[in-house]
Structure formats: structure tokens, C-alpha cells
Amino acid sequence: MVGMGSSATAEQLTAELTQLGGQRFGIGLVHWVAQDRPDLFDVALAARPALLSVSFGEDWDWVRRAHDAGLTVTTQVATVDAARRAVDAGVDVVVARGAEGGGHGEPTVGTLPLLAEVLDAVDVPVLAAGGISSPRAVAAVLAAGADAAWVGTAFAACAEALTPVPAREALLTAEGDATELTSAYDIAAGYRWPATIPERVLRGSPVNAGQGVGEVRRSVSAAEIVASLSDGAEQLLRRWR
User: Fold this and answer.
1) What's the CA gap between 154 and 241, in Å, rounded?
2) pTM for the structure as a whole
3) What string of H, E and C letters represents the secondary structure of the chain?
4) pLDDT tens-digit map of 47-88
């Protein structure tokens, strides 16, 4: 996923897409940012990603536009009611994002309790997000019934990430209890995030990180992370069976 945050622009997305080299990719947008910058959404549609994610909004017109462009769409949800509204709006895949997740999100319910409820409530594929940075965590959500794991923090420190060196080093040395929820940086930057959607960061810094950050210890390639998580989870699931 090419994630576009609070300060995203069409030019920034275009620049990042040129670095993909023909690989399969998705694009993640913040709903209110895409509304403020319509050209950002237009660039995302024109790029024809394998998956388009738009989260943190209540206007669902973007779903129709994305479907008209032939795209598969997803959104992050923090409650069962939000999952139902997303499915009613035509979203193809739901991401159940628990309170452990890094960056912005509603810190309402932990990942596993939320995942269990959402799986029982909707009939579309459900991905689990929040605190998933190890093979054990991937295996846990798959065993619970998730169709896949949605991983963020583990990739923030990977070799291909655009994360600045100081932030990367902070991620690699942080423990799982080193995060906090805050809106201070959004307020300082003038971003219009509601108070109900703070961001989880490394304590005392603007570095986004989920509670799985303690499992992130090496800056390896994205491919190595995928292989480690998937192969490790498969071994655990086979052993448990």
C-alpha cells in the first residue's frame, strides 16, 4: 500500500507511484484529505491500484466512483456499526482496525475482539489490523477467521520505506509499551482530525507506531518481511493443527 497521510498531495502520490517499477500495489487515502484535494483522488483512480483504501469519513460517494473505474475498495473500521455502514455502501473489503494500531484511528476496541465481532456481522472479506508485526500475530488473526493481516508498523522501518533515518532508528529500538495516543501534533500542524481520531505514536515523538513495534528489530526488505510473516504464520498454524 502507498499510504497518503494528512499532508498528501497529487504530486506526492505521483512521485511515489513512479518508484514502484510495475509492481502490484494499493493506495490508501484519508477521506477528508481526498475531499480537500480532488486531484489527489483523481490521480489515485487513474493509477488503477489493485486496492483503493479510503478511511475516516462518512460520505460514500467515492465508492461508486472507484467501482465505475473498475477498482476494488476497502476502508478501515473501528466498530461493528461502521463495518455494517461500509458494506451497505458497497465496500468490497473491510479492515477491522483495533486500538493497538499505529497512526490515526478510533481507539475503541482491541484488534481481536473487534475482528471477532466484525466477522460475525458482515459477509465480505475482513482484514485484521492493529498491533500485527510478528508471525504469531498474523497466525492469531488468521486462526480467528481474518482473510488477511493488514500490517503497517513492520513496514515503516523496511529498507524501501521513505521513513527518515532518525524515525527508523527509533522504531527499531522501541518496545511495545513505548507508544501513546495524542492529537497534539495534528493540532500543531492545523490538520482537521476530530478529537475522536487521535494518532498512536512513539511516546514523546511524532513517529507513528503501533503496539507491535517491539517485534520490529531489523531494517530488511519488504519482501523479506512478507516472507517472514507469512511463512512463520503458516508454520505455527500447521503446528497448532
Assistant:
1) 27
2) 0.95
3) CEECCCCCCHHHHHHHHCCCCCCCCEEEEEHHHHHHCHHHHHHHHHCCCCEEEEECCCCCHHHHHHHHCCCCEEEEECCHHHHHHHHHCCCCEEEEECCCCCEECCCCCCHHHHHHHHHHHCCCCEEEECCCCCHHHHHHHHHHCCCEEECCHHHHCCCCCCCCHHHHHHHHHCCCCCEEEECHHHHHHCCCCCCCCCEEEECCCCCECCCCHHHCCCCCCHHHHHHHHHHHHHHHHHHHC
4) 999 999 999 999 999 999 999 999 999 999 999 999 999 999
**What grid cell was written down for 21?**
517499477
Q: What is the dihedral of CA 176, 212, 197, 181, to 10 degrees?
A: 10
The single residue listed with the C-alpha cell 508454520 is 235
- d(CA 225, CA 156) in angstroms, rounded, equals 11
* b/e sequence 44-67, b meaning 16+ C-beta within 10 Å: bbebebebbbbbbbeebebbeebe
Q: Residue 74: which of 60, 23, 182, 186 has the closest Cα?
A: 60
- The type of residue at 240 is W
Place of cell 500475530: 137
Q: Please name every residue paired with 103 in a beta bridge, in sequence order, or none if there are none.
A: 200
Residues of the chain with pLDDT under 50: none
